[in-house]
Amino acid sequence: MALCIERGDGVARDKSRAILLYREAAQAGVDDACCALGYCLASDAFRDLEATDPRCLEDGRLALDEAVVWLRHAADRGSGEAMVHLGQIYERGGGSIRRDSSAALALFCKAAEWDPKAAFYAGNILWDQLRDGVGSIDKCIEYYELAANGGVADAQNALGVIYEDGWGQGLPMSVPKAQAWFKLAADNGHAIAAYNLAALLERVLDLNVAGTEVDPTHRGKINSAIEHYYARAARGSNR
Fold it and tell me: What is the pTM of this model?
């Protein structure tokens, strides 16, 4: 019932009432309700924390504190969804909750066992660490691939970017791998990947990138692919 009220499915949407019902169920020990309550409280909290009214800021701080309590309870009982929501709070920080990317990473890595999107979030943190001069490109690739193989188009595009540029001596650039990941993401409806693929093919055709040879008989097909993926990027992709 609380979920229907939160979403307005067949009944009037009333998030405040939904939160009351979630809290009752959470206090009765229902794990799913703990996660749902934490998520609702956090989403409201971040909205209030962006306000300028001191009362809103205080409401946001209290709501986020309570959200963390319920999400941590659900996460400790094995809820991957709660781990992701809690990780997002630690990654962002707010109110009395300090930003803690290490705690967020640990939660995302654990949730990645069930949720490909969590693996993508973990990959993002690992990528940020690499740009700060720490971490392992292999670990970053591991989590991006876990997400990409789970169908996360953002991770597929991220892998394309990494292989297109390479990462020092730790990961040589690979045009074929970049092309494959961009194509997979583009074919999954990712507009940026469609643009990236078209731009990569254009460079392969015009500049003979990284020694990649272009058979003259395939030039027309490559040009058609370039036009196709640029067009998909322009209209927001979709398949």
Answer: 0.86
